[in-house]
Amino acid sequence: MSSSSLFSPSFLLTAAFACALALQLLAQVGLLTRQVRHVARHRSAVPAAFAEKITLAAHQKAADYTLAKAQVGLLQLAWGAMLLLGWTLLGGLDALHQALLAAMGPGLGQQIALVAAFALISGVLELPFSLYQTFVVEQRFGFNQSTLGLWLADLCKSSVLAAVIGLPLVAAVLWLMQAAGSLWWLWAWGLWTGFQLLLMWIFPTFIAPLFNKFQPLEDAALKERVTTLMQRCGFAAKGLFVMDGSRRSAHANAYFTGLGNAKRVVFYDTLLKKLNVDEVEAVLAHELGHFKHRHITKRMLGMFALSLGGLALLGWVSQQPWFYTGLGVAPSLALALGSSSSMLSGAQMGHVPGVALLLFLLVVPVFSFWLAPLMAHFSRRDEFQADAYAAAQAQPAALASALLKLYEDNAATLTPDPLYARFYYSHPPAVERLAQLQRQESRV
Fold first, then answer.
1. 69 to each of 62, 102, 422, how far by Cα in Å?
2. 79, 200, 296, 402: most buried by Cβ count inside 10 Å?
3. Mean pLDDT over residues 7-15, rounded?
């Protein structure tokens, strides 16, 4: 290999991607190993702050559940890294592209087929982990309520839904990449943003009911408390609904969904079985805190800004030959064109928008991985703000009691590794969160 090729953009990208992937994998394994060791080390005793309310059996169940998920997580990390290498530097995406090119010839249809085939193959390769998580790990700890038939029905529904909604969107983006000139990414961003807003609006009415049943909240006392709380907080919703979450899992939750006049409040039936009226009101007040502080709007705007930057970057790299050659896709394309890969022009590469899109989606998470702790930090800050709002609108003690029940019932560990929590946790660890609520309660 000549010295000039060692410093070529293609080689530098290959080296940067390989190093970034190795560093990411080392960091992920290291953090998960820290989590395993920390949780196992504290398994034998309930933390002093929870000793009066959490039994040793419940604490050990949470520890064992965390460790079981971590074991699966380690395997997933290794499997995911191998798949990523297989798709990129080892030529998997290039081979799939060439096979479809030979079968269908060049054109938009072939590029749509490439994206669809990639999604299908990737989904199949991830299925064993989903099955094991649901029917082994969740089953072992008493959380799984689903049957294999229901699981398969959900898989079929989600696959059909992804094809019906996703393929036209993919086709439109790929067409824009070919036909809309150098600023195609700006048009694609507008399309993507409009699609996301439409999806938020139609999800509660048309999509969610395909998977779960939603019944109007019938508990009169709870309905009155919730309605009064929402009026006090200035929140209007189309309805209050109870979802049959227990059909699939014993985990509990509540959430807002929808956009504009389609907004609705949804309670899992499991949540209503585990919490009393004061606690449900406090949990809802926490969710209203996110609304009051405009956390959802800010996150949505942040997502739109990141997607704009990402598409602009894709618009540039998709025209750079080294983007393809450096990631294991273009060598066979160069051979087919009868030239060296280094001589491929951006115009030639522009004929493979599906390859560019998939490569970009594969590679970007490796480089953006290090933003995870920053995103988690902002998320935890939002959770503290929502807790403070809930403490002012409801009873701090009720929210603390509800959170403690949910930690226990969901087998969430009370002793996470601090560094792991700082890197990944979107919600503050239980000790920090409940201590903050106790301070707020003492000021009431």
1. 11, 42, 19
2. 402
3. 86
